[in-house]
Fold each of these.
Amino acid sequence: RIIDQLVGAAGSTGANYCEAVEAESKKDFVHKIGIVKKEIKETKHWLRLLARANPECAEEMRKFWKEAHELLLIFSKISRSSRGQ
């Protein structure tokens, strides 16, 4: 179940980014980037749970979590810049 949820959230991140790129307005773009950020946060959540449930792969999950966190920082910056802050 955790893996299915992780794959869904991670896949949704990419799909929602594609939607953001094709946004119909600046407001729509900002909204869709917000969804991307939510999906990244969910991905990080499932990575934490997977690491706890499978300590033998915790180090690998930690690397993926760090990559997800870096993406979250990038999309947070994009979101702030797009809102003019």
Amino acid sequence: MITIHGTGCSLMDYLYTNIDLSSPPLVRAMSKTPGDGGLAPGKLVFAEDLERFLNKPFTDFLREVTGGRDPDKANVGGPSIVSLVNAAQLLEGAPNGGFRVAFFGGHGNDKTADELLDILAQTPLDVSAYREVEGVTPFTVVLSDPNADNGHGERTFINNLGAVLHYGPSDLPDSFFDADIVAFGGTALVPGIHDNLASLTRRCKTAGSIVVVNTVYDYRSQAKDPTGRWPLGEDDTTYVATDLLITDKEEAFRLSGETSIPNALAYFAGKGTKAAVVTDGSRDIYFYSKGTLFSKLEIQNLPVSESVRQDILNPRVPKGDTTGCGDNFVGGILASMAEQLDAGVPMGKLDLIEACSWAVASGGFSCFYIGGTYLERTPGEKRGKIARYYNLYKQQIGRNQ
């Protein structure tokens, strides 16, 4: 059995769709200088910082921009748990089976936790190590504008850290490190884990695990030093212990201090990261591999899915929003890695382009439902829907043989 264990950001997303990010209340709330507490498209701010920026309660601001309506949907969110749910759903529908995907984290004792756990119970993700800790369950308000970015959609996030302020390395049991793949997702929103990421990733490597790190916008570091390079853990040995790093373009630039994706990837490679993938919204993805986990690849790029793009622009195809696209992208990579390992592909020979193909299809499919987490009616349903985009994508990039 191939096992994937993950920790990092898990929360409840309260999603508001059809929000106009160019409306006067939102324009006034937009950041003027980096780290000032204002909103920024595609990025996250903390509710308390936004309150200081606006000099008004967060609840008043939310009422103003939404008209006081209830969220269109409450759904499980967070770069760690959403990616793991997608991986579990893809692997549940895999031809061979025999996989286990588990999340390790903390939630509060409140109604939000009840709602979150009820949703997760409808997925194949193992949440037996998702336990109660002090504080309210973390949540994020997502304001989504489907017409932004030339119709591809954009959103902005307002986060309350809550209970994860009390979750750290001592809360991870020894069993967490006993996995084929260990994934750290969005740890910048779990300070106790993020600030110890170097020691945690090193421990994973000592235990023989493959380490995957996928990032989220690090608002704490941005507010502390708007121009300096973001830290990834307590020191740069996190990069050395990371087999695969997955970031978006902005995060790659802030982590590396570079201003182009190829230069950012070269920086990660120079720091010792074995492979890395950088996404850029509706634009090409870039990646490399040193040949220790995946087959060796120089820095190169792949397009996003043309079939997804056509369906997004097709008025007859029901739309969702872009929330969770990046997280589901990560889940597609994790699932493909697990399947390749299960098929006996040796270390150094895994196929990163194959993994990225499942990732592109997974991220694209998430545009057709609201929120990051898709609830299946039957096991394997999601894999079947994503497989359509995967097969069309393989044809698009000339790898359909």
